[in-house]
C-alpha cells in the first residue's frame, strides 16, 4: 500500500467555503518605544510670526535702549522725566505717561528684566496669544503703578510726604514683567510653577528688605500678585488657544 506525505497545515481547507480559519503564525506584539519629546530651544525666543507682540515690543525696547546708551545724558534724563509715571504726570496725562513709561528699560538691556521680558513674554504669548499677553502685561504695569503712586499722592495731601514726592522718577517695564511671570506660572506644571514663583518672590522680597526703593519693590510684589490673580483667565485663554484637533485624535496638555 502506497504511503503519502501529510498535507501542509492549512491546505486541507475546503475551496470556496467562507469563514475558514487559516493557520497564522503567532508573534508577540512589538514593544512600544517611548520617544522623549523634542527639545526646541529656539521657541524660547520671540519670532515675527510666532510671537509678533513680544518680537515687536522687544524691537522697540532695543531702539529706546540704544537711544539711552548713545544720547547725551541731559536728553536721556529729559526723556525719562517726560515718561515718568509720577503723581504729577498721572494727574495731567495718565494715558500718555502710562504708555510712554513702558518704552524704557530701567538699567538698559543689561538689566535682568530685559532677559526676563524676552523669556516670559515669549512663553506667555505662545500659550494665550499676543493680544491676551499684552493685556496681562498692561494690567500689571498700570495697576501696580496706580497702587504705588496713588498712596504717594494721598500722603502728600495729608502732609506726611513732601511735595517733591509728586515728581518722583518712575518708569520701566518691570511691573509688566512681574505680572506676566505670575500669570505664566499658572500655565506651567507644578514642578515648574512653584520654583518659578518662589524664586521670583524671594528675589523681590530680598530687594524689599534691602530698602533701597521700597515703593518700587512693593509695586513688583503687587504686580506678581496681579498676575497670579489672572490664573483663571489665562488658563481659559490657553485652552481656547489650543488648535482644534480632529475626531479620534488625543488632546495634548499645555
| Major sheet attributes | none
Q: What separation lies between the terminal Cα atoms? A: 78 Å
- Helix-residue proportion: 55-70%
Q: List how many beta strands DSSP finds.
A: 0
Spans where pLDDT lies below 50 across 5 or more residues: 244-254
Categorize the overall geometry.
globular
Radius of gyration: 30 Å
Order of helices and strands: HHHHHHHHHH
Rounded mean pLDDT score? 85
Count the DSSP helices: 10
Beta-strand proportion:
under 5%
Indicate the structural class: mainly alpha
SSE map:
Blueprint: H1 52-70, H2 73-83, H3 87-92, H4 94-100, H5 112-128, H6 130-157, H7 174-185, H8 190-210, H9 214-229, H10 231-241
Helix pairs in contact: 1-5, 5-6, 5-7, 6-7, 6-9, 7-8, 7-9, 8-9
What are the defining features of this structure?
10 helices, about 250 residues, disordered C terminus, about 0% strand
Describe this structure in words.
The protein is mainly α and 254 residues long. The chain has ten helices and no strands. The chain is globular. The termini are far apart.
What is the structure about, briefly put?
By secondary structure, the chain is mostly helical. The chain has helices at 52-70, 73-83, 87-92, 94-100, 112-128, 130-157, 174-185, 190-210, 214-229, 231-241.
Amino acid at each position: 500500500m502506497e504511503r503519502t506525505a501529510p498535507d501542509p497545515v492549512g491546505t486541507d481547507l475546503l475551496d470556496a467555503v467562507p469563514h475558514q480559519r487559516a493557520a497564522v503564525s503567532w508573534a508577540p506584539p512589538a514593544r512600544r518605544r517611548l520617544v522623549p519629546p523634542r527639545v526646541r530651544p529656539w521657541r524660547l525666543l520671540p519670532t515675527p510670526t510666532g510671537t509678533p507682540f513680544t518680537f515687536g515690543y522687544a524691537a522697540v525696547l532695543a531702539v529706546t535702549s540704544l537711544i539711552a546708551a548713545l544720547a547725551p545724558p541731559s536728553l536721556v534724563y529729559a526723556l525719562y522725566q517726560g515718561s515718568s509715571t509720577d503723581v504729577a504726570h498721572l494727574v495731567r496725562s495718565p494715558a500718555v505717561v502710562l504708555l510712554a513709561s513702558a518704552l524704557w528699560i530701567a538699567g538698559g538691556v543689561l538689566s535682568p528684566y530685559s532677559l526676563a521680558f524676552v523669556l516670559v513674554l515669549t512663553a506667555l504669548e505662545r500659550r494665550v496669544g499676543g493680544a491676551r499677553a499684552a493685556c496681562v502685561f498692561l494690567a500689571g504695569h498700570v495697576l501696580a503703578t496706580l497702587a504705588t503712586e496713588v498712596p504717594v499722592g494721598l500722603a502728600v495731601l495729608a502732609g506726611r510726604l513732601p511735595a517733591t514726592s509728586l515728581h518722583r522718577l518712575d518708569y520701566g517695564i518691570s511691573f509688566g514683567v512681574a505680572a506676566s511671570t505670575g500669570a505664566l506660572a499658572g500655565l506651567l506644571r507644578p514642578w515648574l510653577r512653584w520654583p518659578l514663583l518662589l524664586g521670583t518672590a524671594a528675589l523681590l522680597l530680598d530687594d524689599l528688605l534691602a530698602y533701597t526703593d521700597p515703593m518700587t519693590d512693593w509695586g513688583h510684589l503687587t504686580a506678581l500678585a496681579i498676575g497670579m490673580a489672572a490664573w483663571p483667565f489665562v488658563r481659559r485663554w490657553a485652552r481656547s488657544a489650543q488648535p482644534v484637533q480632529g475626531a479620534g485624535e488625543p488632546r495634548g496638555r499645555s
